[in-house]
């Protein structure tokens, strides 16, 4: 069997965020303002001496693709909601929340692993049973020569090991991501799921991040999900008490919404919609959603300045219009 | 030219190209275990061996969590009583149609289904077959976001990748990951900077960084409300956006074409 590929270690991950993080720090204007916002919201409604299990309320923020505003909304909610809040960045392939929250130090970093097959060429007889059995096409037999292994297809089920008649496959463990924890303020913690490049089993990184968040016993867990409606999103949505679906006021946004609505209905997760990036009159979008019986929680306008701020890692809470819409959303969520 | 929308869990290309559907078929992309309770002894072998916590013994019988299940079949393999069998399930739908710009294949993953890339691979395969039949020079694949399984399935075996980014910290962070993954698959990688104008200082840095990572910048598309209006009208930006936007797209295409022609020789 081919040697297992060298794995992109955590050191290489640092380069992806390093310079971008530095830029975020450069643009950290209005950070004092944001700090105040979290202090304002924090502490309200806290009950002391809770030794018994505190059951966290779980709110997922999900929605369509292409920068609809999920992370902006999720981070804004995390800043505005009262009590002890943990924000889980469950968009493990492209976690961006840290760009807004700019943690100074990561308190913890847990590596998440998956299994993968390691072949012993001394035992392997090239029968090809592993290749036939692999449900993901991750193994291929080159007759008489070798077994090829395609790391990016393997899901670590280890069926190959079970079917091998010569016990020629052993189980290796490889890192597929990290879960990092940062304390942003006394009442806000960020738990980030970050999958490794070229990794499969992204849901495993997300579920580890969620477990970590629940172990911190907050009042509210906000889960910022990936875009779309497939496995990483399902994993992030599991167990949510409510979902805020961010819908961009465009035909693409409405099309994506239908998919997400089906998923949420199937999973039995109640939801409401935050119409985002509303350019001009969105009456038709509102009407379309209302006709479907969808609950509309907020309408967040598209403002050029806010967009610029967001692009620089600054939450759009300075703009009164944006802040107003986001505060309204936070109120609806707090009331759940 | 043949079009393929590989963003199977949120496909949008059909909204712009308006295809007339010629055929539609179901895709049985995976398997799910079926437990025969009369044979199940509640021994827990399935639970012990499942890597995805998708089958557990509850009240003495094995129960499947369909959403967690990856369809690998380990449970069926290890069951000492043959109580678990794997059955094929529909995981999506494939569509093929004709558009004003050429034939198009797209798909719709059923909500919550695993998107390991099999449906993406099927979309690409259909596009390839059509391209051969039509003697088309080019297959344009509208790819999924992120860097996970569906993206890798869209990239593997592609000759070129065009990564679209914008001058925002979020997009830059993601661009780093996307370029790295694309290059890891040996795909010649290019970059298009969209929505230029939001952060003038950042655009230069993007180009420089992309070059360091090995992706040539094809061009920039200005941040322009006409793009939004074209989308609303169900038209491509090359057809309906402002002159500035149209020119930027043309320039990007001319540059890309140059590279394509070199590779076809």
What would you say this structure looks like, in words?
The complex is a heterodimer of chains A (336) and B (265). In chain A, helix 3 (70-80) packs across helix 12 (320-334) and helix 7 packs parallel to helix 8 (231-237). Chain A is α/β, with parallel strands linked by helices and 336 residues long. Chain A has helices at 10-26, 31-41, 70-80, 97-101, 129-133, 159-163, 202-215, 231-237, 251-267, 283-291, 304-311, 320-334; strands spanning 57-63, 85-89, 108-119, 139-142, 146-149, 169-185, 188-195, 220-224, 242-248, 271-278, 296-301. Chain A starts with 9 loop residues before the first helix and ends with a helix. In chain A, strand 10, helix 10 and strand 11 form a beta-alpha-beta unit. Chain A has 12 helices and 11 strands. Chain A is elongated, with a radius of gyration of 22 Å. Chain A has a 9-stranded mixed sheet, with helices on both faces. In chain A, strands 4-5 form a two-stranded antiparallel sheet. Residues 2-15 and 30-51 of chain A have low confidence and may be disordered. In chain A, 53% of the residues are buried. The mean pLDDT of chain B is 94. In chain B, the strands form 4 sheets. Chain B has a 5-stranded mixed sheet with strand order 2-7-8-1-9. A 3-stranded parallel sheet of chain B has the order 10-11-12, sandwiched between helices. The longest helix of chain B has 22 residues, at 243-264. The two termini of chain B are 18 Å apart. Chain B is α/β, with parallel strands linked by helices. Chain B has helices at 13-17, 45-49, 74-78, 118-134, 149-155, 169-184, 200-213, 225-232, 237-240, 243-264, and strands at 2-5, 20-27, 30-35, 55-58, 61-64, 84-89, 92-99, 102-109, 139-142, 160-165, 188-196, 216-222. Chain B is built from 10 helices and 12 strands. At the A-B interface, helix 1, helix 6, helix 8, helix 9 and helix 11 of A face helix 3, helix 5, helix 6, helix 7 and helix 8 of B.
């Amino acid at each position: 069997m081919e040697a297992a590929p060298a794995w992109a270690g955590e050191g290489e991950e640092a380069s992806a965020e390093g310079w971008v993080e530095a830029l975020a720090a450069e643009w950290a204007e209005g950070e004092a303002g944001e700090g105040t916002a979290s202090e304002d919201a924090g502490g309200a409604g806290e009950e002391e001496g809770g030794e018994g299990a505190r059951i966290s309320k779980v709110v997922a923020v999900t929605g369509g693709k292409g920068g609809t505003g999920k992370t902006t909304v999720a981070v804004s909610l995390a800043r505005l909601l009262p009590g002890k809040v943990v924000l889980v960045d469950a968009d493990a392939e492209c976690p961006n929340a840290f760009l807004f929250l700019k943690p100074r130090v990561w308190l913890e970093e847990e590596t998440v692993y998956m299994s993968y097959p390691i072949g012993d060429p001394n035992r392997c007889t090239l029968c090809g049973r592993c290749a036939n059995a692999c449900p993901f096409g991750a193994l291929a037999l080159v007759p008489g020569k070798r077994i090829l292994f395609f790391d990016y297809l393997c899901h670590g089920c280890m069926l190959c090991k079970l079917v091998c008649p010569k016990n020629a496959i052993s189980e290796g463990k490889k890192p597929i991501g990290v879960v990092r924890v940062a304390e942003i303020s006394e009442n806000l913690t960020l738990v980030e799921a970050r999958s490794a490049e070229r990794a499969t089993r992204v849901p495993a990184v997300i579920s580890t991040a969620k477990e970590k968040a629940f172990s911190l016993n907050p009042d509210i867990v906000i889960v910022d999900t990936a875009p779309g409606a497939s496995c990483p999103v399902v994993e992030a949505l599991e167990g949510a008490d409510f979902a805020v679906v961010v819908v961009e006021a465009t035909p693409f946004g409405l099309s994506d919404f239908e998919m997400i609505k089906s998923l949420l209905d199937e999973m039995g997760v109640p939801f409401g919609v935050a119409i985002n990036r509303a350019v001009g009159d969105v009456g038709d979008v509102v009407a379309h959603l209302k006709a479907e019986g969808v609950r509309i929680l907020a309408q967040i306008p598209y403002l050029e300045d806010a967009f610029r701020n967001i692009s620089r890692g600054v939450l759009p809470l300075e703009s009164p219009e944006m802040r107003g819409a986001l505060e309204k959303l936070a109120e609806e969520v707090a009331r759940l | 030219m043949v079009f393929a929308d590989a963003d199977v869990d949120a496909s949008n290309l059909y909204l712009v190209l308006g295809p007339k559907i010629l055929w539609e078929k179901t895709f049985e992309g995976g398997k799910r275990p079926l437990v025969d309770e009369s044979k199940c002894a509640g021994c827990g072998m399935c639970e012990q061996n499942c890597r995805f916590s998708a089958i557990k013994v509850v009240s003495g019988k094995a129960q499947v969590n369909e959403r967690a299940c990856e369809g690998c079949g380990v449970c069926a393999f290890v069951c000492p009583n043959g109580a678990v069998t794997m059955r094929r399930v529909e995981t999506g739908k494939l569509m093929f149609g004709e558009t004003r710009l050429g034939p198009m294949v797209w798909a719709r993953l059923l909500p919550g289904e695993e998107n390991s890339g099999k449906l993406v691979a099927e979309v690409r395969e259909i596009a390839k077959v059509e391209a051969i039949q039509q003697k088309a020079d080019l297959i344009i694949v509208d790819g999924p976001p992120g860097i996970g399984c569906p993206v890798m399935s869209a990239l593997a075996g592609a000759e070129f990748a065009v990564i679209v980014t914008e001058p925002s910290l979020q997009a830059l962070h993601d661009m780093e990951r996307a370029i790295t993954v694309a290059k890891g698959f040996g795909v010649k990688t290019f970059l298009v900077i969209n929505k230029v104008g939001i952060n003038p200082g950042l655009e230069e840095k993007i180009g420089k960084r992309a070059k360091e990572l090995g992706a040539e910048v094809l061009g920039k598309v200005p941040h322009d409300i006409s793009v939004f209006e074209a989308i609303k009208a169900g038209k491509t930006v090359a057809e309906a956006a402002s002159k500035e936007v149209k020119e930027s797209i043309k320039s990007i295409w001319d540059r890309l074409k140059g590279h394509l022609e070199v590779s076809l020789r």
